[in-house]
Amino acid sequence: MSGSTGFYGSYRNKIDAKGRVSIPADFRTTLQRQDPDYSSDTGARVLITYGLKPDMLVAYSMQELAGIRATIDAMDYGEDRDLMEQIFGSESFMLTVDDSGRTVFPQALRDAAGLEGEVAFAGKVSSFEIMRTALADEIEAETRARKRALGPGGAAALLNAGRRRT
Questions:
Q1: Which CATH architecture group holds 10-132?
Q2: What is the pLDDT, as a whole number, of residue 123?
Q3: Lower Cβ count inside 10 Å, N or C end of the chain?
């Protein structure tokens, strides 16, 4: 389940021909709690960017976006900062999720990710991904295979290794 601390779980919802889709209720709750300007009148905001993988979109809460913006603001001017400003500026879309959980994906986003019919939402703790269900099935199968290859306790070992690096 999701709460104010992040995005967890996988969900599937229909998207109609006009791009209207319901954001999963758990994700919506997190978006509302992490948007300082949220009200039932204005809805919760979510920033959608093109994913690093083809046919995938990535969604960020306002809280996460504030952290990203602070990181970009601290970067020296140059190619890396320009790239980040491009990804989170001109190649992103600020959408509003109403209290019933619906938002409208612009045609450009739907085309980029091949979204039609049913779409998958995958929690990534600090963000969530949106993709075709076939791609979600492929990623889930790859993840299961990678977990099996790690063996018993493998995921815990990866987390512990990550803790030592920070």
A1: 3-Layer(aba) Sandwich (3.40)
A2: 97
A3: C
What is the Cα gyration radius of the chain?
17
**Most distant pair of Cα atoms in the chain: their distance:** 49
Give me the helix-helix angle, 133-150 and 154-165, nearest 10°: 90
Give the domain ranges of the chain: 10-132
Q: Compute the distance between CA of residue 98 and CA of residue 48 in angstroms, rounded to an integer.
A: 16
Q: H or E stretch including 78?
A: none
DSSP 24: P
**28-69, pLDDT tens digit by residue?**
999 999 999 999 999 999 999 998 788 999 999 999 999 999
Count CB atoms within 10 A of the CB of residue 124. 13
Are 103 and 21 in contact by the 8 Å Cβ rule? The answer is yes
